[in-house]
Amino acid sequence: MAITTFSDLESFRRCPYAYRLDRTDAFPDKVTLDECLRRSVDDTIREYARSRIMGYRLKDEKVLESFWKNWDANYPKVYNPVKDDAMQYIRVGEKCMRNFVHQSTRFGAVDIVASDMEGTLSLPGKNEIAVSIQEVGRRGSTAYITRYVTDAQVSSKEELKNDLEMRTSALWAMDNLGARETVMRWVFLVQSVATELTANRPDCQEAARQVSFMIDDMRSVKEPLPRESDYCPLCPYQSRCPRFLHELSTKESGPDRGTELADRYLEYEKKKQALKNRIEVLDAEQDALKAEIVAYADSRGYMSLKGEEGKILIRHERKAELPQDKTQLIARLKQTGQYDSLSMPNYSRIRSDIVKGTVDPEIAKMANIENVDKIYVKKKDE
User: Fold this and answer.
1) Which of 64, 121, 132, 265 could join 172 via S-S bond, C-beta 3.0 to 4.6 A?
2) What is the pTM of this model?
3) Distance (Å, whole) CA 364 – CA 351
4) What is d(CA 87, CA 91) in angstroms, rounded to the nearest whole number?
């Protein structure tokens, strides 16, 4: 069985159906414009790895020439390309390359010692994942594993902490690079921003455990279903996808019985939504009227108002809200021997006892008690 890659996991997450076709069909390599940009940038960076290891200074013109050459090689693989969009991506790629030269030659840049390192990491549950590190740098006894990113936005540190691929790669690096400390480094080329986080072994081990679960989930799917997303218009398998077969057929032959059925059902949905919206408006108007009723009744000492169609009963009640985190509450119930008697535990009863004042005072302190006005309707025929 082939070793799973992070590209496999990403493709499966995006669409299990397309992922299966990728592995069972002899379909030519097809990419989106985003992927073409990333590949062209990565190919260019790879070409200059040896020069950087040898300490040569990069020049914008040469690096841009390499990028254009790599773009021309990758662009024929783009599925359903749009020329105007392609030019925009080329401009982004040029900006990435200029920023790459700046990042590589500025004062304090990491000394690159290796590129395109590959390995295999054993995961919990007897799974394995292929590890690919784009670049390894050194500062003293610290190893830096670097990934160059062509995304339009810079990810926050909180988002980067959840980067499973980077944390898993860092775990492999800890065991194979012989460094005292390992730092994960993301270089966002569009913005020329680098973000660094020190790798923590327990966090990286947890990432490896999550990746193993993902591999198990992927392998457990026997009949993968298509997953609709923004990627669908770019997917080379769209003409074979059950989610789009009817849509594509109507483009050629026009509306049919399926179109009629779908429209009728959607019309019901539209009417139901209109009713829901109307009910929300009526609820808001009724709440405003409720406040007016309570104020009127209280000012005259009334407990009910009699109308031609029935009677409105006004009640002032107390409501107890328990904390969302019930750890302390459960601990107190067990400590006082009430846990089993309250059906382990019956929160409705606890709230009722708090309002009545019959509950353990320590538990009552945990609740937020507020006064609420209630209105009950008694219709004429009742």
Assistant:
1) 121
2) 0.70
3) 9
4) 6
